[in-house]
Amino acid sequence: MAIEKTTKSKAIQITFIVGFVLMCAKFFAYFITNSTAILTDALESIINVIAGGFAWYSVRLAEKPKDNEHPYGHGKIEFISAGFEGGLIVMAAIYILFEAVLQFIEPSPIHQLENGIYICAIAGLVNFMMGKYLLQTGKKTHSPTLIADGKHLMVDTYSSIALVIGLILVTMTHNAIFDPIISVVLAVGILITGYKLLRSSLAGLMDEADHQLLEQITQVLNENRKENWIDMHNLRIVKYGSQVHIDSHLTLPYYYDLETSHAAVTAVELLVSEKFHSQVELFIHADPCIELSCEICCIHNCHQRKKPFKKKLEWTKSVLLKNQKHQI
Predict the structure, then answer these.
(1) For residue 82, which of 239, 246, 279 has the smallest C-alpha distance?
(2) Cα separation of 60 and 218, whole Å?
(3) CB-CB contact of 12 with 56 (8 Å)
(4) pTM exceeding 0.70
């Protein structure tokens, strides 16, 4: 856990510093070229820096331990950070579209475009490397903030590629009309990215079901299922940034004493924790079996069986989510 925190903080610090340097370089390119398309790229860099600063703060806050006021930790701030970045991206895209329209109406002269192309190409390459680094680190540490930043920088890279190609086209044709056209195309792409980040952020804040994680947990439980785990239901997942809280009901033989039931519950908790490492917190409520449970109970030589065994109930995502004991 401590290593993950250090990795996240280091990644966000590097991103913030590199983003600030690239922002200065892009604005320099705009001032020497007067290109609206380059201004588009420079404005997006401002978003990178502002979002990077907020992400830095959010990651540090998310790393704080649980307390009485925040019994589940501070991880939700990472979803707010991702949403904040998405909102800034949307606003930047709208402003870029506005500037592009003005350029269509009253074109301004462009000069020293070759130097601007070189600067934007280098910035795009740096963004690509930073984006890949953040995505890898974000997935490794399960950080929505780093993943959001990584996706943003990757889109910024594609924007830079399109920008460079467009500026080369302007240079070759000597037709400045391509400059605002490039801005419009890039703004639409940026707008889509901002929407996706906002959508992802709201999904985390509203505790939307993570179906991919549910499938993974279902697979782990099925592969390691014990015969005395008669039934599992009412499984729920809540994400707190990189931390995941899971609770569920586990049906055990009604004649188990407290110590035996506790051992069975602990076995499930350890299994999930080992498979998903430290980012998962699991709580299980033990339920006693009922007569209808006998038909799906896989315990051999059960002396308390009330009904004959019919078949093993396969645990699927839909089965585990149901809030009731299962029966044939």
Answers:
(1) 239
(2) 32
(3) yes
(4) no
